[in-house]
Amino acid sequence: MYISLEKTIRAMSIALDLAEISSSLDASILKSNNGETYSEHTFLHHSKKVTYISLEIGKVLNLTSSELEELYVTTLLHDIGAANNVICSHYASETVEAHCVLGASITSHFPIFSNIGDTILYHHENYNGTGPMKLKGDDIPIQSQIIHLADLLEFSYDEKLPSFKQRDKITDIISSLEGSTFSSTLISAFLKVSSKDIFWFNLETIASMDFILDNIAPSLDIYIDLDQFENIAVIFSRIIDSKSKFTASHSIGISELAYKVSSFIGYDEEKCKKMRIAGLLHDIGKLAIPSSILDKNDSLTKDEFAIIKSHVYYTKIILDKIEDIPYIADWASNHHEKLNGNGYPRSLTAEEISEESRIIGVCDIYQALTEDRPYRKGLDKGKAFSILDGMVADNFICEKSVELLKEALNKQ
């Protein structure tokens, strides 16, 4: 089985865009690391805009096709270390450094493009050596330099104003940093790009018009195998699980349970891996949920619960972008459906819920019951299965799936 890297990266960038939106809902006062206030900047579609700017500059700098491909992928993922609080991760030197280090760590095992981690690590370095890692001059990877400039330009852009009212001001801000934050070569490339009206028109409309980025993005005619795709799924499970202090290893735990049950009942190895991947990605939609709701240590209001329920909808939206994994997308996004038709988001009936989806759903509940939470210790196996048995009696979940999980765990 082979999966399009292009579609995978674009799906993951959607997940990061959703994280940026949810982060903006949690934000208060924001300051950049030079002290300027950016409280009005929402960071919505930040990665998409930065990617567009970076590619335009990269082309002027005559980067090779392989360098442009790597720049494209890296820029879409450059704030992966800040996915859970993109705004606060950009306002103070210690948080800037932290999200660069975390992003490099998360992407260190990315299956394609070996330089992604280093580029992300150094994407806030200043040319004069005053950045968080103190790297200086041309020791800073050129892709990192490009992303840094694109970042600052996007930070300076006011979504509430038409581009013609701010282009001169932004151009002056960027130009004034020649020799300190950016090299003369990079500034020259930026001035060439920004001198064209079409650059600013595209920047103004790119959030709602995906084809603008599609038209300049390199064609990634690259396909990865299931093991490589699982490596990417692990990367995103780490982001998902770090979204809430309640779920430090929730997705990993479910993936392991799903694999055990799948192996126990005799699925072939490829299908077992697909089930494991579904477990890793089942909560990817939680990146769209504000942390203030995920971390609420009290009963949720009706409105808050409605927002929580949307996470499985977003899981399906994100994974459906990867057309090569339709079964994984279904298994991952159906884990809150109930046999009596009262689940969410699609209110599927028993006949519409596959065995694989039922297994993922049971594993999700069991993992949640047995893991520690700040407000309680995890339940032991007996108590957890007692609750699951009660849910079977109420026609919420599948009796066969519960019994398979019991047997698989007893076998180990």
UniProtKB/TrEMBL annotation:
User: Sorted alphabetically, which Pfam families does this protein's record hold?
Assistant: HD_5
The segment(s) forming the HD-GYP domain are 225-412
Q: Which CDD domains match?
A: HDc (cd00077)
SUPFAM superfamilies, alphabetically?
HD-domain/PDEase-like
| Xref: InterPro entries | HD/PDEase_dom, HD_GYP_dom
UniProt name for this protein: HDIG domain-containing protein
Source organism per entry reads Clostridium omnivorum
Its taxonomic placement starts with:
Bacteria, Bacillati, Bacillota, Clostridia, Eubacteriales
